[in-house]
């Protein structure tokens, strides 16, 4: 049976209607997770950006709030972050009522000038723009955007990292209003080079002490992008990370990994950043890709774009070096009617479900319907492969079902038994393979609901509905 909104996910965040891209300003305050996002409320296409706003108590059910930031005389509102100013160093609130400060990019449409501005809120819903904007002016550097604020433990103040062309720049401030540049980091020395976007920088504890992670979303140079089937160059936009140290001024890559490190091997996880003011590190990304985001099918509601599920992360030491490993926080509370699947075909009655699988060796999981649409998740000795080429509608964009865009692959990190978590939610498939170290986020638009799950090989799977 087809519903009116057959693609609107149930537990993945989508805007009330119309266009959405990056998650912005994610912060945990007074028991609620706040999610702001790049939003064009007037049409299902990118337009002058606003910050949409939603809140949640469990990261799975979201309540929409009014638009938080509207374009102004300095430009539209591009990506950025929020920080709860507990000590009221900004003087924009009080200790009793700490201000929530949004630090964002003003993008002027006429000449693309990008400068950093702030706004503050005392009720964490309505924002006042700061009269002294921009707080980080720009005389004309191209691609100067997406500030992410974080606590600087060396200087005991706030720092931010922003994208500045092929590098990211670090700034620090005592009062969140006056910012001084402290250092920068060139993305392409190790890892992928190109134009940086939406950086994030934060510490994670390991058995060997604290390490810092630098995440950067990248626009690859056109001569590289979309040409090669390798997991790094098959799309024009991809997110990478580095493992290293932060000395109070800048980030240093200490892993110097020969191959770029990816927080996701699927086509659809971009601009992913973490929540502020939360003990554990939880990341969320835009589950889409600029290569086709403006062409994907819209539903009866006309929404375009969804977020990944929130992913909690840890840093794990492997034979190949440090790797981020992810899990879905809170999902257990929604699991209903769990049962083991039989080897071979199993009937499927819902388009929002999860699978907890144990991988003992090569095998395959396929979702399919009687019209021949199918998605395959294959585990071999060497690779994990998620193939959505025949998953459903593909004609909206010329490359969507090509080998390059349609086959997602990643090298194996586990040789022995490993856990693979899978969530499917109407138009979005997430796979956390090899104990969470090899994630995939992949969009897929079945014309007809999938009716069967087929499990073959050395994989056992528990199925659960998500409610
Ligand atoms: C990344 C990005 C950001 C920018 C925003 C504009 O997807 O290009 O760099 O701030 O989207 O919507």
Automatic annotation (TrEMBL):
Pfam families noted in UniProt: Glyco_hydro_32C, Glyco_hydro_32N
Cite the SMART domains for this sequence. Answer: Glyco_32 (SM00640)
PROSITE patterns found in the cross-reference section = GLYCOSYL_HYDROL_F32
Question: Which UniProt keyword terms apply here?
Answer: Glycosidase, Hydrolase
User: Any keyword Hydrolase?
Assistant: yes
Q: Which GO terms describe its biological process?
A: sucrose catabolic process
Q: What is this protein called?
A: Glycoside hydrolase family 32 protein
* Family indicated by similarity: Belongs to the glycosyl hydrolase 32 family.
* One term under GO cellular component: cytoplasm
Q: Which residues form the Glycosyl hydrolase family 32 C-terminal domain?
A: 362-452
Gene Ontology terms, MF aspect: sucrose alpha-glucosidase activity
**Which residue ranges does the record assign to the Glycosyl hydrolase family 32 N-terminal domain?**
12-318
């Amino acid at each position: 049976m087809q519903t009116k909104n057959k693609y609107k996910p149930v537990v993945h965040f989508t805007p009330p209607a119309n266009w959405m891209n990056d998650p912005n300003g994610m912060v945990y305050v007074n028991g609620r997770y706040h999610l702001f996002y790049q939003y064009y409320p007037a049409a299902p296409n990118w337009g002058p950006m606003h910050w949409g706003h939603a809140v949640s108590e469990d990261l799975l059910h979201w309540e929409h709030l009014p638009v938080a930031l509207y374009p102004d005389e300095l430009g539209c509102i591009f990506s950025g972050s929020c920080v709860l100013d507990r000590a009221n160093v900004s003087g924009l609130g009080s200790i009793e009522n700490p201000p929530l400060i949004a630090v964002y990019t003003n993008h002027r449409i006429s000449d693309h000038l990008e400068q950093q501005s702030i706004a503050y809120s005392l009720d964490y819903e309505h924002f006042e723009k700061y009269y002294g904007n921009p707080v980080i002016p720009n005389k004309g550097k191209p691609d100067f955007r997406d500030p992410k604020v974080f606590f600087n433990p060396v200087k005991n103040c706030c720092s931010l990292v922003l994208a500045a062309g092929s590098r990211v720049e670090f700034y620090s401030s005592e009062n969140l209003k006056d910012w001084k540049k402290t250092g920068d980091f060139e993305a392409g020395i190790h890892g992928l080079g190109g134009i940086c976007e939406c950086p994030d920088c934060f510490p994670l504890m390991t058995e060997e002490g604290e390490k810092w992670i630098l995440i950067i979303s990248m626009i690859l140079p056109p001569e590289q992008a979309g040409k090669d089937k390798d997991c790094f160059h098959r799309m024009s936009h991809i997110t990478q990370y580095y493992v290293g140290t932060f000395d109070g001024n800048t980030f240093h890559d200490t892993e110097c990994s020969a191959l770029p490190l990816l927080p996701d091997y699927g086509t659809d996880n971009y601009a992913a950043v973490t929540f502020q003011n939360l003990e554990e590190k939880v990341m969320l990304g835009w589950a889409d890709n600029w290569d086709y985001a403006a062409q994907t099918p819209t539903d009866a509601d006309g929404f375009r774009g969804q977020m990944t599920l929130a992913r909690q992360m840890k840093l794990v030491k492997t034979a190949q070096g440090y790797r981020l490993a992810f899990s879905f926080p809170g999902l257990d509370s929604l699991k209903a009617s769990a049962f083991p699947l039989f080897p071979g075909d199993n009937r499927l009655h819902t388009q929002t479900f999860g699978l907890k699988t144990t991988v003992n060796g090569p095998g395959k999981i396929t979702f399919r319907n009687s019209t021949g649409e199918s998605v395959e998740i294959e585990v071999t000795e060497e690779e994990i492969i998620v193939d959505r080429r025949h998953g459903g509608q593909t004609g909206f964009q010329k490359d969507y079902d090509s080998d390059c865009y349609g086959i997602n692959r990643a090298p194996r990190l586990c040789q022995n038994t490993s856990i693979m978590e899978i969530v499917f939610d109407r138009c979005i498939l997430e796979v956390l393979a090899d104990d969470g170290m090899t994630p995939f986020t992949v969009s897929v638009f079945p014309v007809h609901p999938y009716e069967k799950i087929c499990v073959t090989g050395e994989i056992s799977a528990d199925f659960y509905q998500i409610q």
